[in-house]
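Q: My labmate handed me this sequence with no annotations at all. I'd like to see what the chain might look like in three dimensions before we decide whether it's worth expressing. Could you predict it?
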Amino acid sequence: MKKLFIVAAIALLGGMVTACSSDDDKIVELQNGPFEGIIYSSGGKPVESSPLSVFFTKELHSPYYYETEDGRHLKDMTFFDEGNKDSCLIINSVEDFQTVYKGSSPLPEVDFSNNSIFLCRTSVPEGSYKIYKASLSDHGENYILDLGLVHYTSGISTCMVIPVFYWKLMPKMENKEVVIDKSVTDSER
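A: Here is what I predict for the chain of 189 residues:
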């Protein structure tokens, strides 16, 4: 009877280990690529061979204040106004790019004859959230950006809202509203 109990316990334990080790549940954070990227408030690692990746990694950032002799000034945002409102831009031409960019760095070359730049700002409540999926779908009168965030419970915790920027070089898009549909999942499912 004791041997039967040991065999049953080993079989049960083996089944539990197999059931709990599924790779299907792993969440992989999106990484920066030559035509798509994610910039957190702490920056990111650009793909050095991609002028767009280098440009957006440098230019997408939170607003910050700097001190001068005559007082405190807000550093101009490079694409979005101050605040934490979710917002997306569709850039379809060099003129659009020049209009929405408020910085002073030279703009990278982009072939806008067949492409658009899709640029999005969202925010997370603290530093332990990362983007693991971003997909855009056309719904006629608007686009819907399905943005999946993963919460790493072991991450840092702050008392501030942190902006997250997402950009992608897309096939030519129409200028229309973009609705952001955010969902949050826990990395420890």
